[in-house]
Specification:
Elements (H helix, E strand, L loop, with lengths): L1 E2 L1 E4 L5 E4 L5 E4 H8 L9 E2 L8 H10 L12 E6 L5 E7 L12 E5 L9 H10 L7 E6 L20 H13 L6 E6 L1 H13 L7 E5 L5 H10 L1 H20 L2 H5 L6 H5 L4 H12 L5 H8 L12 E6 L12 H6 L3 E6 L8 E2 L5 E2 L2 H15 L11 H12 L9
Parallel strand pairs: 8-9, 8-10, 10-11, 11-12, 12-13
Antiparallel strand pairs: 1-5, 2-13, 3-4, 6-7, 7-9, 14-15
Helix pairs in contact: 3-13, 6-7, 7-10, 13-14
């Protein structure tokens, strides 16, 4: 059993609830009221008994296929051009049509390293939020070259490159009715990009709130922690390097046209640090890989975030190490709340025995729904749900998974 722990500023930001007579409450009071999976007697995570440490949780997450429930997530793809001639694939759920006059609150999703909209950690959340009784909209930003998208220019993405997110958010705003509420959520590498962007933008962001899940926060320290152990070097780091090589290998000819990288050096990388040294730092004009890691780390930007931000991290995460969490910077910022669990691994948080499902769907859904309900501008809004109704619906959906889900 793992009790959820919260860390935050002593004087959290105040939120004005326009849909409840302009009532004003602090961020932590609002979370306590609408997020029982984060505060109170139900704020407990019970890991699957045979996934009793971070390595097992992380390994299970890597092979978890998430057999679809009756709420299968279907996407419609749209391509967004970037100023440098590249393109980004957006996957809308449930549809990309007829958005101009639709004020439905919309979730903007950023995936992890070499991931995409197909990832189970994304679909398990969208199968809840984009279906009744919630009926919200979601759009997943697939980074360049991810989710079967094309790289058209000698430009890739990185954990510290936020310009593509700016392009995507500007495009989304144009596609939707004016003032449609937007909330962002990022997973792993995507959470670092999101938090760094929020810190850079401050009050200029169109996002009303955001969620960071399994954020590594400090790239330099994360890499040092990975290299300290055999499993870190030979399993996690090596696997991530291979994933990057597989993802970008088909685009190496295009990427090499910029004259910054040597394809043979990139493909010879055996660890993620070696890949970043041969490719990422050169692509983004850093003199050393450590300079890239320092500049990209969202721990440097989190104290400047100006919208409500929930961060969720597991203390036994072998990739986003607990030592990298910037507690002091988080407590400095009244807009940020950090929730930690002792167990959960990296993007795991599996519970139940026979057919494990992700516990994280409950606190994430509670917070996102609470933020949407606080900012919903529709004259005819969806049903206002209390936390118990949210959790009951999540249970109903997850309980439909009745087939083995590890391939």
């Amino acid at each position: 059993m793992s009790q959820v722990k919260l860390f935050h500023n002593a004087d959290p930001v105040k939120i004005t609830l326009k849909n409840t007579g302009n009532r004003t409450v602090s961020l932590t009071e609002y979370i306590a009221e609408f997020c029982p999976s984060l505060v109170g007697p139900k704020a407990v995570y019970n890991p699957t008994s045979y996934l009793f440490n971070g390595h097992l949780q992380t390994g299970y997450a890597a092979y978890y296929t998430h057999s679809p429930t009756v709420n299968a997530v279907h996407y419609e793809r749209e391509f967004v051009d970037t100023p440098d001639g590249g393109c980004i694939a957006l996957d809308w759920a449930p549809t990309k049509e007829g958005l101009e006059n639709d004020e439905t609150p919309t979730l903007v999703v950023l995936h992890g390293l070499t991931g995409g909209s197909h990832e189970s950690y994304i679909r398990c959340l969208l199968e809840v939020l984009t279906y009744p009784p919630f009926n919200y909209r979601a759009v997943v930003m697939n980074c360049r070259g991810c989710a079967n998208s094309e790289i058209k220019t000698p430009q890739m993405y990185s954990g510290g490159y936020t310009d593509d997110l700016r392009v995507v958010l500007a495009h989304i705003q144009k596609r939707l009715a004016p003032n449609t509420p937007l909330v962002g959520i990022g997973f792993s590498l995507g959470s670092n990009i999101l938090v760094k962007y929020l810190g850079e933008e401050g009050q200029k962001t169109p996002l009303k709130a955001a969620v960071s899940v399994a954020n590594p926060f400090d790239f330099r320290m994360s890499m040092d922690r990975l290299n300290e152990s055999y499993i870190g070097r030979k399993v996690y780091s090596a696997t991530m390097a291979n994933n990057l090589k597989n993802a970008f290998g088909k685009h190496l000819d295009t990427l090499a046209k910029g004259g910054k990288i040597i394809p043979e050096e990139v493909m010879a990388a055996k660890t993620i640090r070696e890949f970043d040294d041969a490719c990422t730092r050169k692509m983004f004009d850093y003199t050393t890989v450590n300079n890239y890691y320092r500049d990209a780390s969202s721990c440097r930007f989190i104290e400047h975030v100006k919208v409500p931000l929930l961060c969720l991290n597991a203390m036994d995460d072998p990739i986003a190490a607990a030592e990298c969490i910037p507690y002091d910077e988080i407590k400095t910022n009244p807009n940020v709340v950090l929730a930690t669990t002792e167990y959960g691994g990296h993007l795991g948080w599996f519970e139940h025995i026979k057919y494990p499902t992700r516990w994280m769907v409950k606190p994430l859904s509670e917070f996102i729904v609470a933020m949407f309900q606080a900012h919903d501008i529709r004259k005819v809004q969806g049903e206002h749900l209390n936390a118990e109704a949210i959790d009951d619906k999540i249970y109903d959906i997850q309980s439909q998974a009745t087939t083995p889900q590890v391939a």
